[in-house]
Design brief:
This protein is α/β, with parallel strands linked by helices. Helix content is 42%, strand content 15%. The chain is built from 12 helices and 8 strands. Strand 7 (198-203), helix 9 and strand 8 (224-227) form a beta-alpha-beta unit. It binds zinc ion. Zinc ion binds next to loops.
């Protein structure tokens, strides 16, 4: 059992927003390599209309493939009821719903107000979904490229509504606006409101504060983190947003602190090679992969 739990979201958040497309077989090779590195949860795709996001057209195939990997929890994103039904049918272990705390982002991203989206998720929760975990992810929780400031009260309110019928709730800095003080404040307020249902932090590294924000969330008691190999990712509806926190750097930070992630760093670098071979034109980021592990580095026990 590791001290923190890392969900690799690159195959979804990264590839959905990459300029280049990764072939289905290359995605499978990458996901298998991530599993070999010890990643125990992978968000493998999203059930959105293929005409809107062609890069996600093979998600059902990818979900079925990933289910065959030992010990991997397979996550898929669904923006609505139809997407949820497709995710359950394909066999996803967990479905995550993005629910914007920003009114403007919500209309742009899912063409629903935040409250309409909450009701859409509630309808999904009421459908039979044996063994499928539901995550409500409060997105643009720290600011929005369209609306600007997002009231913290609104984040707490949306999280509380989602906690009524979701198994877990995540808080997302979709566009990389957060700072560590804000992270502490918002995670504390949401935990006070919904307790242990608050699970994951989904952080973007747009302004270089991804790791600082992850550490702030860790110190507030968060033990589940989304991250993306090579920092792939962003949001097509949020101009200016770049990738997630870099998985390799997040693993290094925690392991060097003595906080175990369950991830083998050398194998993680092998997975990074599989990624760059599969989508060679796409830029990848990360400090530790470039600099290498420090001399005498020891992973957490
Ligand atoms: Zn994201």
């Amino acid at each position: 059992m590791s001290d923190v739990h890392i969900c690799e979201v690159g195959p979804r958040d990264g590839l959905q927003n990459a300029k280049h497309t990764m072939a289905t077989e290359a995605k499978k090779a990458w996901i298998a390599a991530l599993a070999r590195a010890g990643i125990r949860e992978i968000e493998v795709g999203s059930f959105v209309p293929p005409r809107l996001i062609p890069a996600m057209a093979d998600t059902a195939d990818i979900v079925r493939f990933a289910r065959g990997l030992d010990g991997v929890k397979v996550v898929a994103l669904a923006p609505n009821l139809k997407g949820f039904q497709r995710a359950v049918e394909a066999g996803a272990h967990k479905v995550t719903f993005p629910v914007s705390a920003s009114h403007a982002h919500s209309l742009s991203n899912v063409r629903m107000t935040p409250d309409e989206m909450v009701e859409e998720v509630r309808r999904c929760a009421q459908l039979p979904h044996p063994g499928v975990e539901l995550e409500g992810a409060v997105s643009t929780a720290f600011g929005c490229t369209i609306q600007g400031a997002v009231p913290e009260d609104e984040v707490v309110r949306i999280a509380s509504r989602l906690a009524e019928f979701c198994d877990v709730v995540a808080i997302a800095d979709t566009v990389g606006y957060a700072n560590p003080a804000q992270i502490r404040r918002v995670f504390r307020r949401v935990r006070d409101a919904i307790g242990a249902k608050l699970e994951a932090a989904h952080l973007h590294n747009t302004r270089g504060l991804g790791l600082a924000n992850a550490l702030a969330a860790y110190e507030e008691g968060v033990r589940h983190f989304d991250s993306s190999m090579g920092g792939l990712g962003g949001c097509p509806f949020a101009p200016g947003a770049s990738g997630n926190v870099v998985t390799e750097d997040l693993v290094f930070m925690f392991e060097s602190m003595g906080v175990s992630t369950g991830v083998d760093f050398d194998r993680l670098l092998e997975a990074r090679e599989v990624l760059t071979r599969g989508i060679p034109e796409e830029p990848v980021y990360g400090h530790t992969p470039m600099a290498g592990l420090p001399k005498g580095f020891r992973a957490a026990a």
